[in-house]
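Q: Could you fold this chain for me?
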Amino acid sequence: MRYIDPELLDKANKWLTPTFDKDTQETIKELIAYDTETLEDSFYKSLEFGTGGMRGVMGVGDNRINKYTLGKNTQGISQYLKTQFPGETLKVVIAYDCRHNSDTLAKVVADVFSANGIEVFLFSELRPTPELSFAVKYLGCHCGIVLTASHNPPEYNGYKVYWQDGGQLVPPQDAEIIQTINNLDYSDINFEANEALITLIDRELDDAFAKASVENGSFQTPQLDKDGLKIVFTPLHGTSVTMIPRVLKDAGYNNVTVVEEQATPDGDFPTVDSPNPEEPEALEMAMQIAEKEQADIVIGTDPDSDRLGIAVRNSEGKMTILNGNQAMIVKSHFLLEQWKKKGKLNGDTFMASTIVSTPMLKKVVENFGVTYREGLTGFKWIAKMVKDFPNENFIGGGEESFGFMVGDFVRDKDAVTSTLLACEIAAQKKAQGSSIYEYLQELYAEYGHYKEHLVSLVKKGKKGAEEIANTLKELRENPPSQIGGETIVSFEDYQISTRKDLVNHTEETIEIPKSNVLIYYTEGGSKIAARPSGTEPKIKFYISVQGKDAEQLPAKIESILADLNLN
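A: Sure. Below is the predicted structure, expressed as structure tokens.
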């Protein structure tokens, strides 16, 4: 047997006590005897809340998703709710996605809440994450939970927490809840369900959410134009199949082909390597059908239906995938135009994005006289802005990672309403003899050409976490003076909330929460950001370049990649 760190063995041995069921104990014993590498990865740390909640590999141990780690979370949240809302009848709503064990883990979470005297609304079957966000406010709940790992591989699951406003946890609640959870032992979890407090929900919420989605995502497109749009849609084996076809039909879109091979929810995601619409391969099957049927637009959503990928016909008539920044620009500009037509841009409106998204959005939004706000990566920060500025009207917001939110009836990225919005744009542009692709080119001609590139380096396990930490440490302590042949003119370190102007030798404080993110800006308008993922074992590099000539931009990106040893 390989050497096992005594501290790690002590953690594992705690899972051999009667607090844990026999199957869990037997699995731990087998890991100790035969698989010390998995044992180490299962116990070297405890799962933590990141930008999108808590995600991890399913299995036994502190660093795994299982009934005990999620039960402990839920016990801690139950106790926190009681301190925050004394004397109130507490209510929570729970949803789950298509992943293995999502339904059983959702029931465990419901059991623990009910055992603590909290009223629970549990979706009877899998549902999109944005519907959970909607349900929190619709049902007047104090909290919402969704069991999902978004687009992670099949072995993952996760746990996202929403607060009263329908947005995900943000400071100070997140730190306070984490402290409450950390003060608990697994033996403190009350798994004894009070079934009388658990109510199954489905149709009423579906009807209300679909109605709100159609109202927020529709923009007076004539029925004739809707009938003229050919749509191919794939849920990539996920939850959006329960809502997007219905919303499109309710909105008047009848020419929709659903990719049959990917329509059945399946946590193995058998037809794709990754169920992530950010990956071009995920939309390959839908694109083939679109070419065969001469469709105008392809829509693909991730398993929990908060992100969407869009493919449209380019100037040569071939289907081409828009990246997240491009889709966000098109949707944002269209929304701004619609608000302007209705005379609703009265100085009390704003749009929002994230610090790693394209700088082009700021230019577009401010050109309409609308306030542009920027936050850390993760839609919880955009939802927080809506909450923090209640006297202003939120038009919409997006991020580079294929997420978008239309209005504030949902407080998270919402692929359901955003799909309808994309179809509205496509239908109107087609009726005008144009297209979404041509619309994007017009915006580049007006605002300047931008091109973005994302590099994600997967670094699994304890060793991977150390590599990520060392990479950021090196970039922070020994920042380059040039990238891609261009001098760096400013540098932002969000971990210490500092922005340095390297030309004027000045320094200022960044007025948003701290985060382990570094961003460099060059004299030529390039922007390079580095950050570890909050929910996956990855370090990500976000590159944005700009210029008057679109043809020069790929070479700019290649030069930056070479300097960072990323090509």
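A (continued): The chain has 18 helices and 23 strands.
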